[in-house]
Amino acid sequence: MSEEKKTNPLQYLKGIGPKRAAVLQRQGIATLEDLINFFPRKYVDRSHIVDLNLLQPDQEVTVVGKIEAVGIRHGRRRFLYVVISDGKGILEAVWFNGIEYFKNQFKVGEWVSFSGKVQFYRGFQMTHPEFDRLGEGELDNMLNTGKILAFYPGTEAFKRVGLNSYTFRKIFYFLFKNMTVNVQEYLPPKVMGQRQLLPRDRAYYQMHLPEDGKILEKAIYRFKYEEFFNLQLMLALQRAHLKSKPVGISFPKKSERLEKLYYRLPFKMTEAQKRVVREIRKDMREPTPMNRLLQGDVGAGKTLVALMAMLIALDNGYQAALMVPTEILAEQHYFNLTRMLEGLDVEINLLTGSTGVKERRRINETLGSGAPQIIIGTHALIYNEAEMPNLGLIIIDEQHRFGVMQRAKLIEKGRQPDVLVMTATPIPRTLALTAYGSLDVSIIDELPPNRKPITTIWRFDNTAAKIYRFIREHLEMGEQAYIIYPLVEESEKMDLKAATEAYEHLKSTEFKNYRVGLLYGRMRAAEKDEIMKAFVKNEIQVLVSTTVIEVGIDVPNATIMLIEHAERFGLSQLHQLRGRIGRGKSKSYCILKTPYNIGEIAQQRMKIMTETQDGFIIAEKDLELRGWGDFFGTRQSGMPDFKIANPITDRPILEEAREDAFKLVKEDPFLRKAEHKRLLEYLRKHLKERMDLINIS
């Protein structure tokens, strides 16, 4: 017998045994606590089941019946059919895709539930319905009582050992009816009463064996609230912890170079920028480490604010590091900051994966010496062998693209440095309340007065000739244009091939009488800088680019941006790209060009882009379209992983939980009161690892 089987306590529960216990353990369910936290994926209410003789076309319904026939028909298209009957009527379900897989899911004589839209074609039909197989022993529950049935997530491993929804329901029935499940309430009585929360033990029972719809809703609310409350409590404790320990660096000295930069700027800073600089200066004077989020719309001037923060660090004798996710962005920041700081005697270094051995050695020596400077880099900053004992300020651009442990490694290189997090586009409020909830927030909520509205147009590929003619008309007026191509593959060869082909074609056909330039990701830094400078000087009229130009290029004379295959870009990326135009006096146009047939989500992205320029609205819509998990991609990012709550759809509950958690910590910052004893014990036992991640992120 394996060690896994020997030690797994679940094997002794009725309905589980050693084999099933081993499978459950491999899925992360190893204890009784894990098991009761394995929540259903959905519920089917008997009261919502429609008899088959009462069906109407275009209804969205759930039906239950016994399988009478399963087979494959051959007509214009091959398809699988499954006929069910409930003794009152019949319905046929059909599948045109995945026929071989679905054929093995159904057996004549078994009972199933189907959910979907009813159609009428020689009888009532459903196409590709959601389905659940029902065990023979639960038909009385399903058909003759008012019971609500829970349906659980399934895997191939579960299927092999017979762990289906019916089996889980039997396991939980035995567990709650015949055993004492020791569930301790840890939420404070004040919170329980204020939000009228179901007690924890009763909530677990209702999640698995619901008595009716209303009590089930209360149980679901309880656990959604609990997940949000736990996170918000950790964020509140983290903020209280940072404020209570003055172990960071104080920057009391006024920055002379900041003043010089301010007075020689060729434009006026917005009031919002000035306000945010004041907030940052105030933070940096304090001995507690700054932990601040800087956000604003595209073109709001975040980079200038970040630069001023770096000058404060330098003039107080410290080093400042700016970490960005890609080499292209690192180079663009380096070029821009070098130009802006010309004549101010500021040492700026660039460290990326492409930095040569000799240059890397020189940079490491100067970093190790503690000499005040700005170091700009990518992940190479983290893995660089040099220590930075005099690192006073870290600015992280596009923080969500770095893993939690990567950020921690950079922070560890300094002695409790101040941290300023920047985002390329505004943060959705939902995200600000969760992933960034422990940070102080500065918002640049004002665009420079010279920014004019941009007209955004969505066009199909068959209108290319008209689009190119429109661009030529504006070139004749002395204006400039970007033509952006998405990268098919992040590789040097594909990048160069895509860029070169587009460039050669346009240069020799549509724009043969104009000066066309080419910019792609793997160009040498000096060559790239040369192209950018030529575009700024209007020596290049049309810039063809397959690289990310969201940051770094500011050309007031560029009034048109054509984005080819716009359906391949995300909403935030499209918004960033669009932000490169509309910076001058002339009217600007962003043209989104796509094939005629694109997916529904891509269509929604195009419509949103044509309807609004508000980065905050776009950020919310992007989060809604992509969903919580896909918005971040990997768990490495340190973003919260919710089991039952959804920060997007459950935002009112999230805001309630945040209000309660921050109020509690304000009254009892270290959870020392008697009524918070169980809460503190729960945090220590269950959430220590997440507390550490929150602390880092």
From TrEMBL:
Catalysed reaction equations from the record: Couples ATP hydrolysis with the unwinding of duplex DNA by translocating in the 3'-5' direction; ATP + H2O = ADP + phosphate + H(+)
GO MF, any single term: hydrolase activity
Domain Helicase ATP-binding: 283-444
Gene3D superfamilies assigned to the protein according to its UniProt record, in alphabetical order: Nucleic acid-binding proteins, P-loop containing nucleotide triphosphate hydrolases
EC numbers on record: 5.6.2.4
This protein's UniProt keywords: ATP-binding, DNA damage, DNA recombination, DNA repair, DNA-binding, Helicase, Hydrolase, Isomerase, Nucleotide-binding
Lineage top rank: taxon: Bacteria
InterPro entries referenced in this protein's UniProt entry, alphabetically: ATP-dep_DNA_helicase_RecG (IPR004609), DEAD/DEAH_box_helicase_dom (IPR011545), Helicase_ATP-bd (IPR014001), Helicase_C-like (IPR001650), NA-bd_OB-fold (IPR012340), P-loop_NTPase (IPR027417), RecG/Mfd (IPR047112), RecG_dom3_C (IPR045562)
PROSITE patterns reported in the protein's UniProt record: HELICASE_ATP_BIND_1, HELICASE_CTER
Cross-referenced CDD domains: DEXHc_RecG, RecG_wedge_OBF, SF2_C_RecG
Residue intervals of the Helicase C-terminal domain: 466-624
UniProt KW Protease keyword: no
GO biological process: DNA recombination; DNA repair
Function according to Swiss-Prot or TrEMBL: Plays a critical role in recombination and DNA repair. Helps process Holliday junction intermediates to mature products by catalyzing branch migration. Has replication fork regression activity, unwinds stalled or blocked replication forks to make a HJ that can be resolved. Has a DNA unwinding activity characteristic of a DNA helicase with 3'-5' polarity.
Family statement: Belongs to the helicase family. RecG subfamily.
Protein's UniProt name: ATP-dependent DNA helicase RecG
Native source species: Caldithrix abyssi DSM 13497
